[in-house]
Amino acid sequence: MTVATKVRPIIGLEIHVQLRTRTKLFCGCEVQTDAPPNSRVCGICLGHPGTLPVMNRVALESAALAGMALGCEIARFTKWDRKSYYYPDLPKNYQISQYDIPLAAGGTFEFDVDGSPREIRIRRAHLEEDAGKNIHDTPGCTLVDLNRTGTPLLEIVTEPDLASADDTYAFCVELQRLVRHLGVSEADMQKGHMRFEPNVNVAIEHNGREYRTPIAEVKNINSFKFVRQAISYEIERQVAVWEENNDYVIGKASNENRGWDADRGVTEFQRGKEAAHDYRYFPDPDLLPVQLSDETLGSIRAQLVERPVQRRRRFASEYGLSMKDAETIVEHRPTADLFDEVIKLGGPAEIAGKQFVNVWLKHANDRGVAVTELGVEAARIAELAKMTAEGTVNKTAANQLADAMLTRSNCPSALAKELGLVQVQDADATARWVDEAFAANQQAVSDARTNPKKMQAAIGFLRGQVMKLSGGKADPKLVGKLIEERLQQP
Amino acid sequence: MTTRNLDIETVRHVAHLARLRISDEEAALYAAQLSKIVAYVDQLNEVDTSNVEPTAHPLPLMNVWREDNPTPSWTPQQALQNAPQSQNNFFRVPKVLDQESP
């Protein structure tokens, strides 16, 4: 057996993203795939003779917006083509798609893998209609639900620029963030709103020669985890096949389609590419071409928001947030908008960031709502962060204040006064609490002075006692300093 | 007029793509008939179109679209009334063996 000397995976993707529209791409049936079977269909999506499709303007604009965000050129002129195939999930016997003039082409898209930047080229992105659902679990027949038929999809095709399963995973997640940020898709994986088809092969450098394995296209994966697993599996499989028989000539073995079996964790051969369907594309005479004017493109471009990857990097560089906190906040656009607002209103970035994640997002998660739905406005969030930064309240009091702010609409400074949470900077008062704590806890004091093993724990205990005596109002820094001094005294 | 003969293999391939089962006699008959049709259309090749933009649509119209407002759908009963077979409001078709759709 020969051993592969250097293996370089080459990975590209086709992704189908379901656009967020109320109605289908070419008819007014509601997009509601979980409705009772065949209750969201009409003559157009059922392909009845004599019916005519009419394009959904919102679907076109959403697709164009997504194309712009992917850095693509948007075609000023585009049209619809028929992709012929016979399968009961699409009763017209063709799918309306875009063939030689995609709506968007030639983009680049940035993402991060563990904080280091990556880039992938986007070959094209075009609109097409989804097919219905075939249900194969009844013996002897196939049952067909056509509610999904005609749902608008954006098909995105990348160049094979990805070099690992982890990079591909990160790209897929970033793409989900992008379409959600733009509001063009709910991108709910559970509902099949994003479906991935990775193309995988490997370049193997061996004895000064480069071999390339045939490309395998893994069909229809609907989870990020499975994308990563399927690619890892393919890389290993292809290298193993090559090691077994590495004398094949480049181009001799054919490309193939494979399916991901999640239960067994393997990909399975479906068909060779030479048996690929002949789709006989031609322009759809039922639909008129589309011309996009400067004005239309301008109004779509005006909806372009900062991409999540740029926003995350800005939150890290401008606000000094950790990449992890930045990622958490930018995950949801209204949440990120709220945080920008907090900073604009004078919230000190570092403390505001920590408080936002550890206090406000936590409250939101506990209640199962978005932070924007807590009823706490940016101004009050900013003020609490400012009070914390300036030492008006300590961290513990800030948490108590946040609790109060959830149920009451007063500003935090008024609440702090009312609830007696304003931090006491008075050294004399603090010294009295320290004295009191020392008198009541002789053992801890002696441990703190003479027992090196228990010293830290004892000091921590004393600090806690002082805070308790102060009703949480003492300044923890001052308390620490006074305890240190008092321990030095006999 | 140029002539182009379609062989029986091509006819079989096209029939397969359209999921049609045809007999040997039919394949031979269609090969002859389709050859004539293709030859007829081939006359277009006599015109020099090297400087002509491809036509996307014969009508001088563009940008016909509708707003994203729902219109009533059919009931499952209406949708299924022409279906040869149905079951629990699903269309019922012969078992599909090839599980893959494009």
Q: Total number of helical segments of chain B?
A: 3
Give helix % range of chain A: 25-40%
Q: What is the H/E string of chain B?
A: HHEHEE
CATH architecture of the domain at 8-45 in chain B: Orthogonal Bundle
Strand content of chain B: 5-15%
Q: β content of chain A, as a range?
A: 15-25%
Poorly predicted runs of 5 or more residues of chain B: none
Note the gap between the termini of chain B: 38 Å
Task: List the main descriptive attributes of the protein structure presented here.
heterodimer, A: 490 residues, Arc Repressor Mutant, subunit A, 3 domains, 15 helices, B: 102 residues, alpha+beta, Histone, subunit A, two-stranded antiparallel sheet
Secondary structure layout:
The complex is a heterodimer of chains A (490) and B (102).
Chain A: E1 6-18, E2 55-56, H1 57-69, E3 73-74, E4 77-78, E5 81-84, E6 94-97, E7 104-113, E8 116-129, E9 133-135, E10 141-145, E11 152-158, H2 165-182, E12 194-206, E13 209-212, E14 216-219, H3 224-244, E15 256-261, E16 266-272, E17 282-283, E18 290-291, H4 294-301, H5 308-319, H6 323-330, H7 333-344, H8 349-367, H9 378-390, H10 395-407, H11 412-418, H12 427-440, H13 442-450, H14 455-469, H15 476-488
Parallel strand pairs in A: 14-15
Antiparallel strand pairs in A: 1-11, 1-12, 3-7, 4-18, 5-6, 5-17, 7-8, 8-11, 9-10, 12-13, 12-14, 15-16
Helix pairs in contact in A: 2-3, 5-6, 6-8, 7-9, 8-9, 9-10, 12-14, 12-15, 13-14, 14-15
Chain B: H1 8-17, H2 24-42, E1 65-66, H3 76-80, E2 86-87, E3 90-94
Antiparallel strand pairs in B: 2-3
